[in-house]
Specification:
By secondary structure, this protein is mostly helical. The strands form 2 sheets. Strands 1-2 form a two-stranded antiparallel ribbon. A two-stranded antiparallel ribbon has the order 3-4. Helix 17 runs antiparallel to helix 18.
Length: 393
């Protein structure tokens, strides 16, 4: 459509020029001794226009000829850049598809042509790492370091992540501490730092890092709970040799975390091992007041406090709310055996076996039979019933 409009415009202009030439009667006289030139005014104007157009065309051709090498070089550079960009895109696609060998080849081409050097070097390093070409991986990472301080954090976090994958935890931890100094609130660096701290046994530091990640919503409570619990369990284990150390560690745990059943089981077990039965009882009773847990009830029967009868009374109060809990009945049987209450122990034990037979209950029954002797054993065990005021009789 535009070509047609240009043709019409040129036709109109030519027509106007032709009419103007026909109507004009003037002339131009040029005298250059010994020559004398006389031409019409219209022809003179047309000649000037043609001359100007010719000079413009000649100058443009001269400029294009002189700038041709530069234009060719720019074209080649543009074509090379486009190829490098395409190689980078293809390398990224290959990397995420798992074709690491081809990905390394593609991004290496992009890196040689200077296309996004930091990104190209990162993908090349990760691809080389997946291919277990660790020396080559380190060379790519070194290239990132040469790009300037603005890529330092990128190199540190990437290198640390790859070292963690290689299980070189201490080296990764050193790099991540440096990354922390560069950017104290960098989420990815702290996620990697947490992993390194857990792997190296830096439990308290891991808890602090986990708290920070929760603050910035980088980890939810569901995933944070088992990590925090494990860290505190490890700290309790390291403190389980001496009672004072164990008490100090337990008191340093946040109060809401001390109500975690698994953590309470760990702490109570260590206190029992150190003969600190009163501390274990306090932990178990406090947690059972919050919510019921059979594992804690079983540990309750392992506690040997000086007030064993008070333990029995408390357990019998629990029995009113949990009359068919086989673990609680077994625990009561153990407590009654310590007080030589053979009849009650036998009743509780029979009720526990009736509800849920277990190997532990069978062994305890054998032990109870040996201690009672034939004369003390009840004549019938088929008429057990629950007495709400006294327990099982």
């Amino acid at each position: 459509m535009s070509s047609l409009l240009w043709f019409i415009a040129l036709f109109v202009v030519a027509t106007i020029v032709a009419i103007a030439v026909g109507l004009n009667t003037g002339y131009v006289l040029i005298v250059m001794a010994p020559w004398r030139i006389e031409i019409s005014l219209a022809m003179f104007v047309i000649g000037i226009i043609v001359l100007c157009l010719g000079l413009y065309t000649f100058s443009r051709l001269a400029y294009l000829s002189l700038s041709l090498p530069t234009r060719v070089q720019a074209y080649r550079q543009k074509r090379s850049k486009n190829r490098a960009r395409s190689a980078l895109y293809q390398g990224l696609t290959d990397y995420f598809e798992g074709n690491f060998k081809r990905a390394e080849k593609q991004v290496e081409l992009a890196l040689e042509n200077g296309e996004s050097p930091a990104l190209s070097a990162i993908v090349a390093a990760r691809s080389a790492h997946e291919l277990h070409k660790y020396e080559k991986r380190d060379l790519y990472l070194a290239k990132i370091n040469e790009l300037g301080p603005e890529t330092r954090l990128l190199r540190l976090t990437t290198h640390a992540e790859l070292l963690l994958d290689e299980r070189r935890y201490n080296e990764a931890l050193t790099l991540l501490k440096e990354a922390h100094r560069l950017s104290p609130k960098h989420v990815r660096a702290h996620q990697l730092l947490l992993k390194a701290q857990l792997a190296t046994g830096a439990w308290r530091a891991a808890i602090e890092t986990l708290d920070l990640l929760e603050t910035v919503h980088a980890v939810d409570q569901i995933h944070a709970l088992p990590i925090r619990r494990n860290a505190w369990q490890q700290l309790l284990r390291h403190s389980s040799t001496y009672l004072d150390d164990l008490k100090t560690t337990w008191k340093s745990i946040p109060s809401e975390m001390r109500l975690d059943h698994l953590l309470a089981q760990t702490a109570a077990g260590y206190f029992i091992d150190l003969k600190a039965h009163d501390e274990a009882l306090s932990i178990i009773e406090r947690n059972l007041e919050k919510s019921w847990d059979d594992a804690l009830v079983a540990l309750y029967g392992e506690c040997r406090s000086q007030s064993n009868r008070m333990q029995i009374e408390k357990a019998e109060n629990w029995l009113k709310d949990h009359p068919e809990d086989a673990v609680l009945l077994l625990t009561l049987a153990k407590l009654c055996m310590r007080e030589l209450l053979w009849g009650k122990a036998q009743s509780y034990l029979d009720a526990s076996i009736f509800i849920e037979p277990s190997r532990e209950a069978q062994l305890l029954q054998q032990e109870l039979s040996e201690k009672m002797g034939p004369a003390k054993q009840p004549t019938s065990r088929n008429n057990n019933h629950i007495d709400p005021d006294f327990g099982v009789a």
